[in-house]
Design a protein that fits this description.
1 helix, 3-stranded antiparallel sheet, 79 residues, globular, disordered C terminus, alpha+beta
C-alpha cells in the first residue's frame, strides 16, 4: 500500500487515497479549507504518511470483538 495525496490549492483541499495491490484506490482522509492557499512539501508529506484522525472519511472501522481480533478462529454462519 502506497498512500497518494491529491492537492487542490484553489479549493483548497488535500485528499488522501490508499492503493491496494491491484491498483484500486480508496479515499481515506480529506481536508478542505475556505480560501486558496499553498501547501508546503512537509505538510503534504505528513498528510500522506500520518494524517490526523479528524480528517478520516473512509469506511467505519469494524467493532472490536473476538471476530475482529487477529488470529481469531473463523466462524461459519448457517443460513
Amino acid at each position: 500500500m502506497n498512500p497518494v495525496v491529491v492537492i487542490d490549492c484553489h479549493e483548497p483541499s488535500l485528499t488522501r487515497y490508499e492503493c491496494d495491490e491491484n491498483g484500486n484506490k480508496r479515499r481515506t482522509h480529506s481536508a478542505i479549507g475556505t480560501e486558496p492557499c499553498l501547501f508546503d512539501a512537509g505538510e503534504v508529506e505528513r498528510f500522506r504518511t500520518h494524517p490526523e484522525g479528524r480528517f478520516y472519511v473512509g469506511p467505519p472501522a469494524p467493532p472490536p470483538g473476538p471476530l475482529n481480533t487477529p488470529g481469531a478462529p473463523a466462524v461459519a454462519v448457517a443460513a
